[in-house]
Structure formats: C-alpha cells, structure tokens
C-alpha cells in the first residue's frame, strides 16, 4: 500500500468526524458542553436542593390527598 493512500484515508476519516460533529451540534441547537448558567457550585447545590425539597413536598402532599401515605396499596 502506498503511503499516499494511507494519508488520504486518514484525512477522509478526519473530515467525516468534523462533519459528524457539525451535524450533531446542529441537531442539539448549538448548546455545546458544560453548565454555563452563571452559578457557582455552592449556588447550584442550593438551587438543586431546594428543587428536590419542593419535589418531595409535592409528592407527599399528593400521596396524602389520595389517601395513600406513600406505601403500597393492599387493594385486591
């Protein structure tokens, strides 16, 4: 095998990777990687903790209103 074929083949694979990356970025709307929401890790933890507490409170309120306190029902 000639070295030019090896070189051209590797270039084609590289070009295909670049095209695939561009297509993937277009599908995701150009969001990209990372969490650039402008919050520090501490602020993010507080925000997430508050969201989890609200979710748990909503779930317990829903369970209490349906008469099932989160346990399994024994209805047959």
Automatic annotation (TrEMBL):
UniProt superkingdom: Eukaryota
Short name of one Pfam family: SERF-like_N
Span list, region Disordered: 1-76
Bias kind Basic and acidic residues: ranges: 15-25, 33-57
Domain (Small EDRK-rich factor-like N-terminal): residue spans on this chain: 13-45
InterPro entries registered for this protein in UniProt: SERF-like_N (IPR007513), SERF1/2-like (IPR040211)
Family: Belongs to the SERF family.
Record-linked PANTHER family: SI:CH211-39K3.2-RELATED, SMALL EDRK-RICH FACTOR 1
Protein name, as recorded: Chitin synthase
Native source species: Actinidia chinensis var. chinensis (Chinese soft-hair kiwi)
Top-level taxonomy: Eukaryota, Viridiplantae, Streptophyta, Embryophyta, Tracheophyta
């Amino acid at each position: 095998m000639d070295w030019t074929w090896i070189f051209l083949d590797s270039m084609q694979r590289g070009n295909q990777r670049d095209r695939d990356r561009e297509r993937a970025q277009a599908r995701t709307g150009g969001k990209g990687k990372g969490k650039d929401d402008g919050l520090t890790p501490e602020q993010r933890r507080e925000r997430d903790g508050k969201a989890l507490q609200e979710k748990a409170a909503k779930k317990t309120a829903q369970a209490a209103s349906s008469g099932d306190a989160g346990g399994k029902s024994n209805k047959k």
